[in-house]
Each structure stands twice: as C-alpha cells, then as structure tokens.
Design a protein that fits this description.
Layout: E1 3-5, E2 10-17, E3 21-26, H1 33-42, E4 49-53, H2 70-87, E5 92-98, H3 100-111, E6 118-122, H4 132-139, H5 146-155, H6 164-168, H7 179-189, H8 192-202, E7 218-223, H9 234-237, E8 244-249, H10 256-259, H11 261-290
Parallel strand pairs: 3-4, 3-5, 5-6, 6-7, 7-8
Antiparallel strand pairs: 1-2, 2-4
C-alpha cells in the first residue's frame, strides 16, 4: 500500500473499493486506520473508494515531527484530501473522523481550505478544555518516571489504557489480551514519546469556527454509553452548521464504529447518499433558475 508525503510528514494509507466518491476515514488517538475502521468498512455498501490513512506516529506512518501541532496535522490531512481527489479522480469527498479524528474533521471544515462535500464526526468534541486536567496530570510525570507511570496506568486499566474491553469485550475471554499485553499493543500503535507530543498539542485544542453557518452537511454520531465524549457535545457544534444531524446509537461506548458497526454503516450510508442527492438537486436547480 502507498505512502503520502508532504513537507512535514510521510503517512501510510490503505485504499480499497472503486467509484468517484471517496470516503476518507481519520482515526483517533492510539489507533490505526485499519484498527479503527475495518469493522465499519466491511459493512458499507460497494461503490465507494475508501481511504484509511495512519496519522503521524501511528501504525506504519513516520514518527511525529518536532514541529507537530494540531494546525500542521490538519494541513497534512487537507493535503491528503487533495492528493486523493486528484490521484484517484474523485468527484466527491466525504471526510469521516472518530474521536481526535472527529476533532480534526471539524477543524478542517472550519478552516475551509479544502473542498469537502460532506462530513461525519463520530464521538466528536470541538474543544479539549474538559480534558486538560487529565492531560496535564499525565504530562506532569517526570521523564525518568514515565515508563513506571505508564506501566501502572496499564496495570490499573486507567488512561490511556482504559478502553480494552470496548475493543475486545465481544470476544471470547481466551482471546482477550490482558491489561499489560493490551498496553504493549497500544504502545506499538503509538509510542509513549509520540503520545506525549499529541497530549501537549491537545492542551490548546479548540476549533476556531468561522462567522456564519457552514454549508457542508454534517452528521454527528455518539454512543449512548460514551462517558468520554457524551452526546451533549453536539450542542456546541450544531449551531455552526446550516445542515446537521445527530444520531445516538444505543448500547455503544466511545468506539462506536467498532461496537455498533452495522447500525453506524446504515446511518453513514444513508447520510452520504442523501447529501449527494442534495448536491445534484442543487446543481440542477441553479441551472433551471438561470434559464
């Protein structure tokens, strides 16, 4: 599978499917493109070109650069969107993000530097302020104690290792990794050093919304049992969009795209198809008015 490079980073991505509509999936912190999205992708209808990039520091992508920031990461994703559109001859691009990937999706839509035809933000926030205290607690640990701190967090299934059963709870217990084994999996996905770079960036993470309503159609999705990013966060996001919908999926936690892959696939597909029909209708309507 190919890599995409810009001046700041080189990222690995997987692509599959075919069609003139591209679905670009942006994963969250401590995941890879395939880990986050493969369950959902398997439940989507054919007819879309699917892209699953690994963000910097994650999976098979390069480590985070010294000048890493949320703004630079958004620019990287914007460049990847343009690359996908041109290289794969896409007519429409739908940007879909989960957790930090949802924040990045909203940030990119707000920046308005690249054409996006519709967006889906899963477990989304637009401001990291509620999480700053927890992030600072992790960053306050001196460097020489970092390894011990993370091992203790793993043993107690605490931040950032507390989502093990969200990912593996449906599997037979014999196949579920233990707490320390799960920490090793997570740290292989994203190193402790890179994790701390992301945390420092999150401290000031806030979407800078433009004046006026954003015209890009938006679907917000939350899990009913998500204690990390509950659905009330939609109240701060919705007012910035002219067309937005909120879906809350029952019996689901933070990793909705894994625990509720089938109903999410239906909701996502319905939203995408509706958004594309509206776009076509809008073009025809403007043509009629000109005549």
């Amino acid at each position: 599978m190919p890599y995409f490079e810009n001046r700041d980073a080189s990222i690995y991505y997987r692509t599959s499917g075919a069609g003139a509509t591209g679905l670009i999936f942006i994963h969250g912190w401590y995941q890879t493109g395939s880990e986050a999205w493969i369950s959902l992708a398997r439940n989507l209808k054919p007819g879309y070109r699917i892209f699953l990039p690994d963000l910097p520091g994650h999976g098979l992508s390069d480590d985070v650069s010294p000048n890493f920031s949320i703004a630079n990461n958004s620019q990287l994703i914007e460049s990847f969107v343009e690359h996908a559109r041109k290289s794969y001859r896409l007519k429409k691009v739908i940007l879909i993000g989960h957790s930090y990937g949802a924040f990045a999706t909203l940030d990119i839509i707000a920046r308005q530097n690249v054409a996006i035809d519709a967006a889906v933000a899963i477990s989304a926030i637009d401001d990291y302020a509620p999480y700053v205290r927890r992030l600072k607690q992790a960053l306050w640990v001196p460097g020489f104690l970092t390894g011990l701190y993370y091992r203790l967090q793993a043993a107690l299934a605490l931040f950032p290792y507390g989502d093990r059963l969200h990912l593996y709870g449906a599997m037979p217990q014999s196949l579920q990794p233990g707490r320390m084994a799960y920490a090793q999996i997570k740290n292989h996905t994203l190193s402790v050093a890179s994790s701390r770079v992301y945390m420092r960036a999150f401290l000031t993470g806030k979407v800078k919304w433009p004046d006026g309503k954003i015209k890009v159609p938006l679907l917000l999705v939350y899990g009913e049992r998500d204690a990390l990013t509950p659905a009330r966060h939609a109240d701060a996001i919705n007012p910035h969009f002219a067309k937005s919908e909120v879906v809350v999926l029952p019996k689901s936690g933070h990793n909705v795209q894994i625990s509720a892959a089938e109903p999410l696939a239906r909701a996502l597909t319905g939203f995408v198809e509706k958004s594309l029909r509206r776009a076509v209708a809008g073009k025809h309507g403007s043509h009629v008015r000109r005549h």
